[in-house]
Amino acid sequence: MKIRSAVAGLSVLILVCFACQVKQKETSTTTADTLATDTVVTAADIANLVENDSVANDCVRGEPEPVLKKAVYPNEIFQRQPDGTAIESTDLEHNDRLLIYHKGCEYYWLTFRFETSRFQADTTDVPYWMDKAVGFMRDIRKGLDAPIDTDNGTDAIARLLKEKKTAELTEEIVFEEGSIRSAATLDRVQKIDDRRYAIEISFFTGPL
After folding, report:
1. How far apart are CA 110 and CA 154, in angstroms?
2. For the chain, how are helix, strand and coil distributed in percent, rounded to 5?
3. Distance (Å, rounded) from C-alpha 113 to C-alpha 67?
4. pTM exceeds 0.90
5. What phi, psi does 115 have (nearest 5°)?
6. In this structure, which of 34, 44, 176, 185 has its CB flanked by the most CB atoms within 10 Å?
């Protein structure tokens, strides 16, 4: 009962913030350095908050567990969050860094964020960054032990690039059909600073 009241209160607060955003929209501008721009709060965002609340209490997915092998990545850090999600992180070679976001409830969802200074290109060049994401995923495959077939998903992305030569951000790439479907998306390309970029790629399966 307390959880429902808290969620209801949070929903009202979010809607008030949304109204403020709309009112200020004409007088404010933003500069987007990524292809994935921020969006206003919607009913779907509120639903996600409710889902995240249920994650910690009654989630089909179950408690998040580490997917990086300690033997390969001894500096791996795994932190569960109060909302039932988790963040996993480790340093990679070439001064790169990896963060993995564990989320979802009805779906099992992993988002891989690679931060690197080895590659540079316009953030709107989706095929270029998708190709780099494929390379990163193949680099870490020996140290990855996830209950979702990221190898199959990575290969599906590589095939898409080879066949189409083009791609769109957040385009859903299905690599397993059926009642429980698996897919991948390139979610975000971000310019962190003058030399460093971030690529976020997700793999998800469900409904469970």
Report:
1. 13
2. 35, 25, 40
3. 14
4. no
5. -110, 125
6. 185
